Amino acid sequence: MAKTAIKFALVRNSIVTFLTVFLFLQSSVYAQSDSGQSRAQEIEAIRSVIAATQPNMLVETIAASPVAGLYEITLQNAQVIYASADARFFIPGDLYEVMPQGLVNRGEDKRNAARAGKIAAVPESEMIIFEPEAERKATITVFTDVDCPYCRQLHGEIDRLNELGIAVRYLGYPRTGLDTETHYKMVSTWCAEDPKAMMTSATRGGSVPEADCDNPIARHYQLGREVGVTGTPALVLEDGTILPGYIPADTLAGYLLNPATP
To answer: CA distances (Å), 119 to each of 84, 126, 188, 241, in order?
Structure first.
């Protein structure tokens, strides 16, 4: 059941990813290329077409994909699309490779790696961390909202997660956006004299005394948008895999600590 629940979350996330990105190109703006073009010219042609047709699409990288003649475009929100070398055809969705273990989602692999890198760049001093008393066997980074019912449910199992050896590192992600009541409540949680105690109190419905300081909530919120967070809680594993929604502590531990167990 543990693996089934996690797999369902991953499949659901992959479907959302596939449907999120769509690029329509008018033939009048197709960029023409020939076999003599260099890779740099092909990449520039692809970038020019995107700029002309989708100016709001934020491109992070364009690189050759594992398939000859196909380029991989990584967007700022961790989505991936593909383009032909002549910049005439754009394909939303993921690239799968046949491997001995079955079909491997290369698009998701790339998103996970990018997500893990961005999370790793956040200093733990910016997080509210609940650490196991014994050995840390696994770590999850959670984008949370103190007013979110499922975030509260997850935090209600924090002692069990720590008992199982799982460290929980919180990043702030007010679902209602910045400059909202929840945003300021989360700022006050991070700025409290004892942020861990305030986090627990807030997720139990307690009042959060107003406090202010140099805080990271706006940065965390922007990071969440960049790595594909669409709701809370969003659990990010050490390899960058993102699991949306609440998962019971024992189910999560079964996946993290015994990944080969059915």
So the answer is: 31, 11, 23, 11
| The domain boundary residue, chosen from 41, 75, 104 | 104
Residue where one domain finishes, among candidates 74, 104, 134 = 104
Note the pTM of the prediction, 2 decimals.
0.73
Please state the length of the chain: 262
Quote the Cα angle for 171-225-26, to 5°: 170
**Residues marked as catalytic:** 145, 148, 151, 175
Per-residue pLDDT of the chain (262 residues; tens, 9 = 90+): 445 445 544 444 443 443 333 333 333 334 444 444 688 999 999 999 999 998 888 898 899 988 888 999 988 777 889 999 999 999 988 888 888 888 877 878 888 888 999 999 999 999 999 999 999 999 999 999 999 999 999 999 999 999 999 999 999 999 999 999 999 999 999 999 999 999 999 999 999 999 999 999 999 999 999 898 999 999 999 999 999 999 999 999 998 988 654 4
> In terms of residue numbers, what domain contains 20?
2-104
